[in-house]
Specification:
By secondary structure, the protein is mainly β. Helices cover 0% and strands 46% of the residues.
């Protein structure tokens, strides 16, 4: 029952002088036409395409404000795994998480959702940009870790 401090934003920027926090994820954004970020699950069954602070254009993922798309390797079927429309950027006890809710409904009835946990890493690949890594899935929520500076 410990008190937990957290900050939330519906944009890609999170600042608080009171907590000495200043975070801006906009430099990670990929413009339409650029290759999106991608990751594959451990069984190589699905590919995930992601964007931060911008829309995603992937064949088969239809609609507006798509930031996460799941594509089945076997038949190239695509499902929206999260949208930026109601995204939440949260900083809590040193953890930075970006959540994309409102994806397509999956067979269990849950709506797909993507959760990215960002880790500060000054030596991240691609000149500090880093790359998302698929971690696991629970009830159609897809968890990724992303080392970036």
């Amino acid at each position: 029952a410990c008190h937990r401090d957290y900050l939330e934003s519906e944009t890609c920027i999170l600042t608080s002088a009171q907590h000495d926090v200043s975070i801006n994820l906009r430099p990670l954004s990929r413009e339409i036409g650029m290759n999106p970020y991608s990751a594959t699950d451990e069984k190589k069954k699905y590919s995930y395409y992601l964007n931060v602070c911008g829309d995603l254009l992937v064949t088969g993922c239809e609609g507006e404000k798509i930031s996460s798309c799941q594509v089945k390797q076997a038949d190239n079927k695509a499902k929206v795994a999260g949208r930026s429309k109601n995204q939440i950027l949260r900083y809590s006890d040193g953890d930075l998480t970006l959540t994309f809710p409102d994806g397509d409904v999956c067979s269990s009835g849950f709506q797909r959702m993507t959760v990215i946990n960002f880790e500060c890493n000054e030596t991240a690949v691609k000149d500090g940009e880093g790359t998302p890594m698929f971690q696991h899935e629970v009830d159609c929520t897809y968890f990724f870790s992303w080392d970036t500076k």
